[in-house]
Every structure is written in C-alpha cells, then in structure tokens.
Amino acid sequence: MSTLTIAIIVAFVVGYLFIALESVTKINKAAIALFMFVVCWTIYMIDPGTYIEQFHADILRESTVLQAVNDIIERHLGSTSTTLFFLMGAMTIVEIVDQNGGFDWVRRVMSTHSKRKLLWRIAFMTFFLSAILDNMTTSIVMIMILRKLVASHKDRIIYASLVIVAANAGGAFSPIGDVTTIMLWNKGLITAGGVMKEIFIPSLISMAVPALILQTQLKGTLGDADNSNVMYESNAETELIELKEGQRKAVFFIGVGGLCLVPVFRSITNLPPFVGILLVLSVLWITTEVFYRTLHRENNSVTFQKRVSNLISHIDMSTILFFLGILMAVACLEEVGVLTAMGRGLNTTFNGNHYLVTGIIGVLSSIIDNVPLVAGCMGMYPVQAVGDMAVDGIFWQLLAYCAGVGGSLLIIGSAAGVVVMGLEKITFGWYMKHVSWIAFAGYLAGIISYYFIKTYIF
Predict the structure, then answer these.
(1) Of 133, 4, 38, residue with least CA distance to 329
(2) CB-based contacts of 400, cutoff 8 Å, min separation 6
C-alpha cells in the first residue's frame, strides 16, 4: 500500500471520527464531510497517474491522466447527484404535505384510551409511513402525535423508543423508505418489487418482536395529555392552515400517493427514480399554486407563505451537503482500491458467509452512519450476473435490511433515533439499558426469517 493511499485512509478516518463526535465538537458534520471529500481527492491528485494506470488502464489509452481523472470524478458526481436530487425532491414533498396540514388525519386515527392498543397503532402507522416518507420525518410526525395523546413522559419514552424501531424497520423494505435503500435502488442493485417482496416480512418481524416485548411495560388506560410544556411543534400545528379540508386531503394524497407510485413510474419508463420524484413534486407544486390562487381570489387577505417557492428554503441543505461529502469521499477510497481490498478481506475472514458479513455491517451501522457503510459496500463488491451478488441477490437485500434495522440498536444509530432523542430527552444510557437488547432481538429474528424465506420459499 502506497504512502498516498495511507494518507487518504488517514484523512477519511480522522474526518469520520470528527463526524461521529459532532455532539462533542459542536461542528456540523456536513462541514467535516465536505472538507474530508476535498482533502481525500486533493491527496489523490498528487500522483493520480499511478491509480489510473492500475485501475483504469482502458481509459488512459484514450485520454490523458487529467482527462481520465475528470471523467472519473464526473461519473461519481453524476451517480451521487441522482441520490441527492431524489432526497431533495422527497424532502420538499413531505414539507409541503406537513405545512399544509396533510398529516392531521393521522392523529385522529391514533386516538384511543388503551395503552396497548395505542402502542400497536403507533407501531403499524410508523412502520408503513416510514416506508413512504423518510424515517426522520415519520419520527417527528409520530412524536408530535404522541405528545397530544400521552401525558406521562415515562410512558411516552416507551412509545418513542418503538417509533425509532418501527421507523427504521419500515424504511428497510421500501426502495424509497431509507437513504441506504434509495442508494441501492438508484445503483440498480435491488429492485422495488424484489426488496418489498422478500424484505417485508423480516422488517415486519423486526418491528413486531420489540413491540410484543415493550407492551408488557404498558398497562391500563391513558389520561389526557397536558401540552402546556410542549416546546416543539410542527408548523402545521401552530400556524393557521389556510387550505380547506378537501384541499388538504388532496395535498396529502397527491404527495404521499405520488411517492408510492415512484417505483411504478420507474418500472414503466425505465427512467432514474429521481425523475419520478421530480414529477410528483411538480404536480404537487402546480396543484398548491392553483389552490392558493383560488383562495386569494376568494379572500384578498390570504397570504402565500406556504407556497412551494417559500417552503423550499425549509429543506435541510446541511443534510444534502453531508451526503455529498460522504459519498464523494467514499468514491475516492473506491478509486484507490481500498474498498475492493476490504471486501476481499471480509470474504476471506468469514468464508463468504453473507449473513455474517451483513449482520456485522448492521451492528456497525448503529455506531457508524449507515450511509458511508453502504456506499463502501457498493464499492467493495461488484454486482454479478448471477448468484448472491446479482441484482436482488441475498447480499444486497440483506445489506438493505441490516443497514436500516441495525440503526435501532443504539439511539444514535439512525436519524430517527437522534431526532427522538432530542425531542423526548431520552438518554443514551436509558435506551441502551432498556431498548437496545429488545431491538437486537428483533434484528436477529428478522435475519433468521429472511434465511427461512430464501431457503424454503423463494
């Protein structure tokens, strides 16, 4: 291994350490990720010819070293951009639905006086919503609902813990439910039909097992929630909803229904998934513009604060830039051959047992962000025409499951966990003591069920 390769690895590891310690350093992880991306590629450019000759000799025969490097970077940037545009579109759609009161009906559906009934309603609603929305948004929506329904903080953190588990489980079986499944789907390593058919049951089990255990901690009926001390409210709750009831329902069904139809659009047109997302966004944008124009004609005092052009500024661009930095830094590791070497090492160590490899990756995803882990695996293992590494093969489907569900093992292991941790003030130690082992039981049960499904059914 050359000195430059070691320097790139060191830069990546140090950068990753600062990302993991964001709560200590108070430096936004997006800033570190972007800096890491630039440093890795800058070191690469000290002597790019060595890497080009070793890994891209075919390109070098037709162009100069600098042209080859530009082609490689543009290829990686193009692949990364499809994921970023998908996320930006999906985040904007969810923001439009939320700001215009599209999720109000969810709270009405959840209402019950039985603690255990509420637990199962929360579990299934979170599970299926997170398959359509991202797990972070779903978690925020469900916590806001819980604050309206559950007065006791002691009870609420049990429900909130299940929200984390259910949100991560629901995102794992859907091609649009989690950033990692979006990445795998965009890359063509899994198909929408394949992952939904074969990962749905393991994901459902990984949610149901913890729910069964957690319900033993809840008995009796619920009192009325006291919302006087709620410090965080969604804009949909605190601002005047200007759209009429029928218009709010239309916004919900166009936005959420459109997200559900994105895989169908891809299968019909063979266009990249982000094109389908942009189609849904454009239709929703046009619809809301018509609604607000109509309201403005009926009442000149109606404002246009919730027009899409204004809501776009609410999108968390730091998250988008974080993904850009991470994915491009991982691409540099791929170009210097580090990921390929790691893939060979894992296969040798575990004798090619994909259940062990992906199972360990899932556990690591509770400590290390699952985005770079999955990006690294995509670079480590080339897709094959047939076998476990083929499209919808065991390895890629297990990777989607383990990287998503494994984030529930620690409260800091997923975006859903971090958000709930902040909103409900759940400590790392409490979650690890009371929930981690329960989440792990569900995680293992899901892997075992996948094994039986692949061995005896499909």
Answers:
(1) 38
(2) 172, 173, 178, 180, 181, 184, 190, 195, 199
Q: How far apart are alpha carbons 435 and 447 in whole angstroms? A: 19
| Burial zone of 102 (CB within 10 Å; 0-12 exposed, 13-18 middle, 19+ buried) | buried
Report which residue type is found at 213. I
Please, what are the averages of pLDDT over each run of 10 residues along the chain (458 residues)? Answer: 89 84 79 92 89 75 79 86 82 81 72 85 91 78 80 87 93 84 84 89 95 87 53 41 74 84 83 88 90 69 64 78 85 81 73 82 75 74 72 87 89 75 78 91 94 84
Name the helix (H) or strand (E) containing 418.
Answer: helix 415-424
For residue 232, give Cα distances in angstroms to 228, 229, 424: 11, 9, 10
Number of CB atoms found within 10 A of residue 177's CB: 31
| 296 Cα distance to chain centroid | 37
Say which residues have a Cβ less than 8 Å from residue 202's Cβ, sequence separation at least 6: 173, 401, 446, 447, 449, 450, 453
DSSP type of residue 456: I
Residue 379's identity, in one-letter code, is G
Closest CA to 163 of 128, 133, 122, 134: 122
Strand-pairing partners, residue 390, are: 384
Rounded-to-integer distance, Cα 87 and Cα 277, Å: 9
CA-to-CA distance for 19 and 21, rounded, in angstroms?
5
Record the tokens describing residue 180, joined without a space: 């990692």
Report how far Cα 43 is from the mean position of its chain's Cα atoms: 30
Report how far residue 245's alpha carbon sits from residue 285's, in angstroms, rounded to the nearest whole number: 18
Contacts 24+ apart (CB under 8 A), 108-111: 110/145, 110/149, 111/149
Cα dist from 427 to 201, 226, 230, 417, 437, whole Å? 31, 22, 18, 11, 16
Burial class of 220 by CB neighbour count within 10 A (0 to 12, 13 to 18, 19+):
exposed
Contact 367, 373 (CB under 8 A): no
- Report whether 245 contacts 100 (CB < 8 A): no
